[in-house]
Amino acid sequence: MASDLEQLCSHINEKIGNIKRTLSLRNCGQEPTLKTILNKIGDEIIVVNELLNKLELEIQYQEQTNSSLKGKGLQSSRSISFSMLELFESLEEDYKDVEHLKENIPPHLPQVTVTQNFVNGSDLDPEEPVKVEEPAPTKKPPKEQRSIKEMPFITSDEFNGIPAYMKSRLTYCHINDVIKEINKAVVSKYKILHQPKKSMSSVARNLYHRFIDEETKETKGHYFVVEADIKEFTTLKVDKRFHGILNILRHCRRLSEVRGKGLTRYVIT
Hints:
The chain is mainly alpha-helical. It folds into two domains: 8-92; 156-268, Orthogonal Bundle (Arc Repressor Mutant, subunit A). Helix content is 61%, strand content 5%. Strands 1-3-2 form a three-stranded antiparallel beta sheet. β2 (255-260) and β3 (263-268) form a beta hairpin.
């Protein structure tokens, strides 16, 4: 009997406590400062409830998937096949890269030539006397030719570092093809400048005088060309695309510009 009364008293006290908490929460809800906080809490509770529902659905899906894999014994084979698929895709990408490089070898790269200069011992007749050739008289060594500075080609790393707005639709080969033609103009020009005047033709002599007139203090000791040289010695079109490539070459520090006397001189750096 005493235990029943104690349980009844504790139950009544618990209900009284719940009523007090409800009344205090009701009073808090009527205060404007706490009302906004309670509304936010309510919104967050709704969001958390939605997330819990999604989590529950995901757990159910994973449980169903695991049970089906266990039933068929495919869990281990699935991980192995996934790894094999990744390996196959990686090898396939590497193969495509190699084929692309093979089909797009830049034309300016030097060609590899193999020369074999040897005599097999079996080709010699042992009974035939060996003729000893007398050494040819030594000739005077030719005069050393002056080396002409040429512009180095753009590397793939430099090409990747060029801003996209500069490159537009230009490719790595387009830029290096223009470098090859500019070098052709530089070599042709300075071969004339290094040529003895007595051996010059009238055309070469006229070009020689033009080259001298175009030099300035800033270009002294440097190799440069102008647009007239590009038109004279190459098949390049001096158009908007050509000047865009010149901007790229300036960006990559392959050349600089020296202006004066109404001309723009492209100096090889």
